[in-house]
Amino acid sequence: MENLKVTCAQFENKSGDKEFNLSVIQNLSRQASAVGSKVIAFHECSITGYTFAQRLSRDELLSIAETIPDGPSIKILQSIAAEINITILAGLFEKDAQNNIYNTYICVTGTSVLAKYRKLHPFISKHLSPGNEYVTFDLHGWKCGILICYDNNVVENVRATALLGAQIIFMPHVTMCTPSTRPGAGFVSPALWENRVADPTSLRLEFDGLKGRAWLMKWLPARAYDNAIYVVFSNPIGMDDDQLKNGCSMIVDPFGDVIAENRELGNGISSAVLTSEKLELAGGKRYKDARRPELYGGIIAKSHKSELRVNWIQK
Fold first, then answer.
1. Rounded-to-integer distance, Cα 4 and Cα 273, Å
2. Can you tell me the mean pLDDT for 124-137?
3. Are strands 101-108 and 168-172 parallel, antiparallel or unpaired?
């Protein structure tokens, strides 16, 4: 298995403006290709925008959702991938033949849709249907998986995807800088974003503290370490509808170390070379090999009613 150079991206999307968002995706993909990356990953609903969907009616959400693989945005994404010779992962709202709507993430090349994954735990809109399966796929000789945002907070999803053979899990998000029951959580004032050139320090303190990166670092490296996988985390920066997001898109290796991270207070990319040796040397590989599922298989599979709660969502 050859080394693979991967890029994680961050950008400020515009709600519902697919043309604009795809133009940014094209520009950042060019930058990734210029530094030798074969793959670039964007955030959850990076094509459509995300948070504004909480206010949309079912008909309004259907109007921006697309079928896959025939939707116009997917065709444009493929043309970008073909032009630049790079594999692109990006997100959007999907509709199927029965007009069910999903929060979906796709992986495309210039000639095909390699993978499509539907979020298992959607919450931004009551009109969204949940996905019902894990997805793994081959990418440049590596086995990959996808889990969207909240899906990664349910640790069983990450372990299951890893046990299905995933060596890289792409984890697109729109997260952080929202209220929660945990200490230190909360919104970040948009005024700090507007004043970021004159006063980057005040914004960075909010972005890097418990409202943002400090919370992320409590758990994201553990997902990589425990499962001996590479994690490609992508998150928007700037305003997503009425919420400010802090970016810090990053790549974490199987040792739980951050090997690439976006630190710009704006659109940007960060890249890392993934090597297969780490998959075998990481402690998580030994721990997976030592599992005794006869002890807890029945416990994990015990019947349970899923209840999804998000603190900042207005009921």
1. 6
2. 98
3. unpaired
